[in-house]
Amino acid sequence: MAAAFRILLAEDNPGDVRLFREALSSRDLTVDLTVAQDGQKAIELVKNASACSAPLDLIVLDVNLPRYQGDEVLRSVRAQPLLRNVPVIMLTSSSAPGDRAAATWLGADLFIRKPSDLEELLEVARIIEEILTRPSNVTSA
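The chain above was modelled as a monomer; its predicted structure follows.
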Protein backbone atom coordinates (compact mmCIF):
# COMPACT_ATOMS: atom_id res chain seq x y z
CA MET A 1 0.00 0.00 0.00
CA ALA A 2 1.31 3.46 -0.91
CA ALA A 3 2.20 5.83 1.88
CA ALA A 4 -0.29 8.60 2.55
CA PHE A 5 0.42 12.07 1.26
CA ARG A 6 0.88 14.36 4.25
CA ILE A 7 -1.05 17.62 3.91
CA LEU A 8 -1.29 20.53 6.34
CA LEU A 9 -4.45 22.60 5.91
CA ALA A 10 -4.59 25.90 7.81
CA GLU A 11 -8.28 26.87 7.75
CA ASP A 12 -10.49 28.33 10.48
CA ASN A 13 -13.85 27.72 8.80
CA PRO A 14 -15.18 24.22 9.68
CA GLY A 15 -17.38 24.24 6.57
CA ASP A 16 -14.39 24.89 4.32
CA VAL A 17 -12.44 22.11 6.09
CA ARG A 18 -15.33 19.71 5.46
CA LEU A 19 -15.49 20.72 1.77
CA PHE A 20 -11.72 20.30 1.45
CA ARG A 21 -11.94 16.78 2.89
CA GLU A 22 -14.79 15.95 0.50
CA ALA A 23 -12.82 17.30 -2.45
CA LEU A 24 -9.82 15.14 -1.55
CA SER A 25 -12.03 12.08 -1.12
CA SER A 26 -13.26 12.59 -4.70
CA ARG A 27 -9.75 11.73 -5.93
CA ASP A 28 -7.96 8.39 -5.69
CA LEU A 29 -5.47 9.57 -3.08
CA THR A 30 -4.41 8.31 0.32
CA VAL A 31 -4.09 11.44 2.44
CA ASP A 32 -3.04 12.16 6.00
CA LEU A 33 -4.66 15.57 6.57
CA THR A 34 -3.70 17.72 9.55
CA VAL A 35 -5.84 20.80 10.17
CA ALA A 36 -4.72 23.94 11.97
CA GLN A 37 -7.58 26.26 12.91
CA ASP A 38 -5.38 29.34 13.32
CA GLY A 39 -2.04 30.70 12.18
CA GLN A 40 -0.26 30.10 15.47
CA LYS A 41 -1.13 26.38 15.42
CA ALA A 42 -0.10 26.19 11.76
CA ILE A 43 3.32 27.68 12.57
CA GLU A 44 3.76 25.19 15.43
CA LEU A 45 2.86 22.31 13.10
CA VAL A 46 5.23 23.62 10.42
CA LYS A 47 8.10 23.73 12.91
CA ASN A 48 7.28 20.20 14.10
CA ALA A 49 7.02 18.93 10.53
CA SER A 50 10.43 20.38 9.76
CA ALA A 51 11.93 18.20 12.50
CA CYS A 52 9.97 15.09 11.45
CA SER A 53 11.47 12.29 9.39
CA ALA A 54 8.34 12.18 7.20
CA PRO A 55 7.99 15.73 5.87
CA LEU A 56 4.86 17.34 4.53
CA ASP A 57 3.95 16.84 0.87
CA LEU A 58 1.70 19.90 0.59
CA ILE A 59 0.66 22.91 2.65
CA VAL A 60 -2.64 24.69 2.01
CA LEU A 61 -3.09 28.03 3.76
CA ASP A 62 -6.11 30.26 4.11
CA VAL A 63 -4.96 33.85 3.64
CA ASN A 64 -7.11 35.15 6.50
CA LEU A 65 -6.46 33.18 9.68
CA PRO A 66 -6.86 34.14 13.34
CA ARG A 67 -3.71 34.86 15.38
CA TYR A 68 -1.31 34.87 12.39
CA GLN A 69 -2.26 35.50 8.77
CA GLY A 70 -1.50 33.03 6.00
CA ASP A 71 1.42 35.13 4.75
CA GLU A 72 3.05 34.92 8.19
CA VAL A 73 2.65 31.13 8.16
CA LEU A 74 4.12 31.06 4.64
CA ARG A 75 7.16 33.03 5.86
CA SER A 76 7.64 30.41 8.58
CA VAL A 77 7.37 27.58 6.04
CA ARG A 78 9.95 29.10 3.73
CA ALA A 79 12.29 29.75 6.69
CA GLN A 80 12.47 26.00 7.43
CA PRO A 81 15.24 24.46 5.28
CA LEU A 82 13.50 21.07 5.04
CA LEU A 83 10.22 22.66 3.94
CA ARG A 84 11.48 25.19 1.39
CA ASN A 85 10.55 22.93 -1.51
CA VAL A 86 7.18 21.79 -0.16
CA PRO A 87 4.45 23.14 -2.45
CA VAL A 88 2.24 25.77 -0.81
CA ILE A 89 -1.22 26.72 -2.02
CA MET A 90 -2.80 29.90 -0.70
CA LEU A 91 -6.62 29.86 -0.60
CA THR A 92 -8.67 33.00 -0.23
CA SER A 93 -12.10 34.46 -0.75
CA SER A 94 -10.39 37.78 -1.55
CA SER A 95 -9.91 38.97 -5.09
CA ALA A 96 -7.42 41.69 -4.10
CA PRO A 97 -4.43 41.67 -6.48
CA GLY A 98 -2.15 42.66 -3.59
CA ASP A 99 -2.88 39.38 -1.79
CA ARG A 100 -1.81 37.36 -4.83
CA ALA A 101 1.32 39.45 -5.35
CA ALA A 102 2.36 39.16 -1.69
CA ALA A 103 1.81 35.40 -1.64
CA THR A 104 3.83 34.93 -4.82
CA TRP A 105 6.64 37.14 -3.52
CA LEU A 106 6.76 35.11 -0.29
CA GLY A 107 7.04 31.84 -2.19
CA ALA A 108 3.53 30.44 -2.62
CA ASP A 109 3.32 28.01 -5.52
CA LEU A 110 -0.35 28.69 -6.23
CA PHE A 111 -2.91 31.27 -5.21
CA ILE A 112 -6.45 29.93 -5.60
CA ARG A 113 -9.74 31.62 -4.96
CA LYS A 114 -11.85 29.48 -2.60
CA PRO A 115 -14.32 27.38 -4.57
CA SER A 116 -17.87 28.66 -4.64
CA ASP A 117 -19.48 25.62 -6.26
CA LEU A 118 -18.99 21.89 -6.71
CA GLU A 119 -17.28 22.21 -10.10
CA GLU A 120 -14.67 24.62 -8.70
CA LEU A 121 -14.17 22.42 -5.65
CA LEU A 122 -13.50 19.38 -7.83
CA GLU A 123 -11.04 21.43 -9.90
CA VAL A 124 -9.10 22.33 -6.73
CA ALA A 125 -8.99 18.62 -5.86
CA ARG A 126 -7.69 17.84 -9.34
CA ILE A 127 -4.95 20.48 -8.97
CA ILE A 128 -3.96 19.05 -5.58
CA GLU A 129 -3.77 15.54 -7.01
CA GLU A 130 -1.61 16.81 -9.87
CA ILE A 131 0.78 18.50 -7.42
CA LEU A 132 1.00 15.46 -5.16
CA THR A 133 1.53 12.94 -7.92
CA ARG A 134 3.99 14.81 -10.11
CA PRO A 135 7.31 12.93 -10.31
CA SER A 136 9.22 15.29 -7.99
CA ASN A 137 6.77 14.53 -5.13
CA VAL A 138 6.43 10.78 -5.57
CA THR A 139 9.11 8.76 -3.82
CA SER A 140 9.98 5.28 -4.98
CA ALA A 141 9.66 2.36 -2.58
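DSSP finds five helices and five strands in the chain.
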